[in-house]
Specification:
Blueprint: E1 22-31, E2 36-44, E3 50-58, H1 63-80, E4 85-90, H2 93-101, H3 110-120, E5 125-130
Parallel strand pairs: 1-4, 4-5
Antiparallel strand pairs: 1-2, 2-3
């Protein structure tokens, strides 16, 4: 047997965006037993003040598509609200890779990814960050 082992813990928490930025935390989920899917998100400012939230039911889609639709719906809302500097946090590394690097036009989610990438090219600043689920809580 070896010597004593040590366990270290890291506290994961939500952090506010930089001054002048709006943070959007998104989440998509699919409940397999009920075949219900949702996408939701919340916007907060640099003071951690709540600005806006959304939650939309979706047809039965994959978890990855629900995550991407949460980002898309959030970006569309941000644009209509004239939020010009958006920090998007999502916990799906797979969704983030698709947003950042795109996918082939034969990919099942190509149209959704392209719809996310189009508004990113408008006259505003959008950055995407991966966060662990525990730091992406909507409360």
């Amino acid at each position: 047997m070896g010597g004593p082992s040590s366990i270290s813990y890291t506290w994961l928490k939500w952090n506010p965006p930089d001054i002048g930025w709006t943070k959007l935390n998104t989440d998509g989920s699919v409940h397999a037993s009920s075949h219900r899917a949702t996408c939701d998100g919340v916007f907060r400012n640099h003071l951690s003040n709540f600005l806006l939230a959304f939650a939309y039911p979706l047809p039965f889609v994959s978890v990855l598509e629900a995550e991407l639709l949460a980002v898309l719906n959030g970006l569309e809302l941000a644009w209509t609200r004239k939020y010009t500097q958006i920090s998007v946090e999502l916990h799906s590394a797979s969704a983030l890779r698709l947003i950042q690097f795109g996918c082939k036009n034969t990919h099942a989610l190509f149209d959704t990814v392209r719809r996310i990438q189009q508004p990113v090219n408008l006259d505003w600043t959008v950055r995407f960050d991966h966060v662990f689920r525990e730091a992406n809580q909507l409360s």
